[in-house]
TrEMBL record, chains A, C:
SMART domains: CoA_trans
SUPFAM superfamilies: NagB/RpiA/CoA transferase-like
Origin superkingdom: Bacteria
Name used for this protein in its record: 3-oxoacid CoA-transferase subunit A
Entry keyword Transferase: yes
Organism: Uliginosibacterium aquaticum
Pfam family, one: CoA_trans
From TrEMBL, chains B, D:
UniProt entry keywords in alphabetical sequence: Transferase
Entry annotated with the keyword Transmembrane: no
Protein's recorded name: CoA transferase subunit B
Keyword Transmembrane set for record: no
Organism: Uliginosibacterium aquaticum
Length: 215, 216, 215, 216
């Protein structure tokens, strides 16, 4: 784990990179990293996240800036711009059931080749997927997702990058922190090592590549 | 009583002590307002909380504590927070006793379409497919008709949410179940006759000898 | 969730039941429940757990009492009695890689039809299992495990059954608490509701059927 | 220096700053004793801890804080605890930089057998299969011979732990890798000749022109 400035952290991310971004309707999304991606004018990103939030919030800012060319998400209903760009063919959008999306990301981080889920059987979600029967019930084989970068928003980080999240801002953050080649964290507060009890660490510091230093 | 309140009040009667319940947005959210006195029910918010409480007082909102729409909520004593993998393990794993969702169509076998109108409304399915597939009991809360057309149809023209048959549909006109593999009229709304429900319904309804009126 | 006496809780478990038991080398195992199972003379149990501990400790007591007829575990090497009973044909024993065992239990609790793991490919573990190729790599399809009862050892429980575990006593406990029809918990300390922060609850109380009342 | 210390000291040289490392029981555990000064390495205990520290002082043992054998350990500042699903997600998911395990046999392609002697020793594989399959770097720590027989064999007669090729074997006689798809002698132990290693080894060894002595 190393500390890094916000600008330098975002400079690591090239145009065309794939990003997993924590947060649920922008709650738990590392807002400073999003703002800096927009400021640096990043383009052609693939974003994997629960949703595209709303205009002016979290991932919604990337959508407005037309920084995203491909989105894998479970819900875009609260961001009309996402739907407009999608219907206009400007944004490629793969919609995935939420419980499937989070398991696919978990599989990517946990070294699993996939999981079998009953969700989506008998719906349009099953198109193009393998169906596998186990104990007389049919399941869809859902394959792992990984990304070049995970952008994680934490409540607390200690000096080693051990993270704690608060309340519903936890959501996708600890899962995406396991499924990317490079993990960049913005923490609301940074505390000395030992302040977070070992039992309250939700993401081990060994998973964190870069912790953004506060200015 | 308006239609939404009627539906929410009737569904609240389905709550049982100690249940873990997920309420979708819209009419389903209102169900919490009519929790019978003395009944202790756990509400799950799929963004990662059990023990969701009411909207906080002015100035008391915590930005890291919201419902699945990103709106501030409170947390009751004994609430617990978790990540999204755990949230959907609870939903998919059969730990959720009941889910209440809105609907666009329900067919006469009891299959629900509620997540998209292709080419027109593409919000994504969010958690709906997992909720309908995984919850022990699925209740659909919706108006009986939209723009003069029955939402309880012979066959869904819209994409299905799940192959799983829902347990109960509560509308402003009727309560319908599918226990026998086909739509059956269980109750009518106050002041609504069985004939009126049949007329307003595209699906073929099984009509028992005795169809009581909802007791609200 | 209801509170129950130790004797009444164990009386719920019939001969021949399948039990998932938390703990790792007896650390985190609900020792009072084990003692009472032995005292009540339960027989013919199927036990699913990481290991069989050692004679005189945790699950080792059930082995010594010959209460177990079938064991699914990853390691029995520190309990010579388990190995003796197994080699003598008195105890049916299925040995499962530890990472596979915990994922099979997780799948059972999470409503998944199975997971694909690379672990065991090219070894005797693959016998009788389906192999599935994803992105050019072969995986074993491992199926879910569930049990009639989960026996969970917690550090803290509040009045609603929200649980917190301590340090390495967490291990299998939160995972088995999701994968059984009936979940019985012994907590070292019981505290009023609200004492455990929502962020520190590791098993939601809604998963707990019975919390053993202290005498 | 005894054989175990020699092996452990040599393996300790493979540690790098910031690595997450899992040490098996036996010789591998000793590696932690020879951590180069100033190097910061995280040790994982697969029962659910990163930041495992030394054996506690008398009277300081905490029964809920043990290694994978159930023996008391301490935890360093910045340690973290987690459940077994997370522990093996770390191992299987490629987050573990190095694992050091004991061995019964390694074949000349680099495949390890270390978990059972059928009919004789059936301890179960524990975490070994996941560790060998998932860790970024797998190092085997073992005596070169057992009961006069080479443990580095042409073909494993014992059941394999994984189809994955290990990265390095360190014995009391030699350091061997498999980078070219076959066993290659990298170093000899102090005072041991290349010829002595070849004689003591059943597997066919590739011998580079220059085989240095271990620098301990």
């Amino acid at each position: 784990m190393q500390t890094i400035s916000l600008a330098d952290a975002v400079a690591l991310i090239p145009d065309g990179a794939s990003l997993m971004i924590g947060g649920f309707m922008a709650v738990g999304t590392p807002e400073p990293i999003i703002n800096e991606l927009v400021r640096q004018g990043r383009k052609n990103l693939t974003v994997i996240a629960n949703d595209s939030a709303a205009p002016g919030r979290g991932i919604g800012k990337l959508i407005t800036a037309r920084a995203v060319s491909r989105l894998i998400a479970s819900h875009i209903g609260l961001n009309p711009e996402t739907q407009q760009q999608m219907l206009a063919g400007e944004l490629e959008c793969e919609l995935v059931p939420q419980g499937t999306l989070i398991e696919r990301i978990r599989a990517g981080g946990a070294g699993l080749g996939g999981v079998l889920t009953p969700t989506g059987i008998g719906t349009s979600v099953e198109e193009g997927k393998r169906k596998i029967e186990v104990n007389g019930r049919e399941y869809l084989l859902e394959t792992p997702l990984r990304a070049d970068f995970a952008l994680v928003g934490a409540f607390l980080s200690d000096y080693l990058g051990n993270l704690q999240y608060a309340l519903t801002a936890r959501n996708y953050n600890p899962i995406v922190a396991m499924a990317a080649d490079t993990v960049i964290v913005n923490a609301e507060s940074i505390v000395p090592t030992g302040v977070i009890s070992p039992d309250h660490v939700m993401t081990p510091g060994v998973l964190v590549d870069y912790l953004i230093a506060h200015e | 009583m308006d239609a939404q309140e009627l539906i929410a009040r009737r569904i609240a009667q389905e709550l049982r002590e100690g249940m873990l319940v997920n309420l979708g947005i819209g009419i389903p959210t209102l169900v919490a307002n009519y929790l019978p006195a003395g009944l202790h029910v756990y509400f799950q918010s799929e963004n990662g909380l059990i023990g969701t409480g009411s909207v906080p007082d002015p100035g008391m909102a915590q930005p890291r504590l919201t419902d699945a729409g990103g709106k501030p909520v409170s947390a009751l004593p004994g609430a617990c927070a978790f990540d999204s993998a755990m949230s959907f393990a609870l939903i998919r794993g059969g730990h959720l006793d009941m889910t209440v969702l809105g609907g666009l169509q329900v067919d006469q076998q009891g299959r629900l379409a509620n997540w998209t109108i292709p080419g027109k409304m593409v919000p994504g399915m969010g958690g709906a497919m997992d909720l309908v597939t995984g919850a022990r009991r699925v209740i659909v809360a919706m108006q009986h008709n939209a723009k003069g057309k029955s939402k309880i149809v012979r066959e869904c023209s819209l994409p299905l949410t799940s192959a799983r048959i829902v347990d109960l549909v509560v509308t402003d006109l009727a309560v319908i179940d599918f226990a026998n593999g086909r739509a059956r009229l269980l109750e009518t709304a106050p002041g609504v006759s069985v004939a009126e429900v049949v007329t307003a319904t595209e699906a073929e309804l099984e009509i028992p000898a005795d169809v009581p009126e909802m007791q609200l």
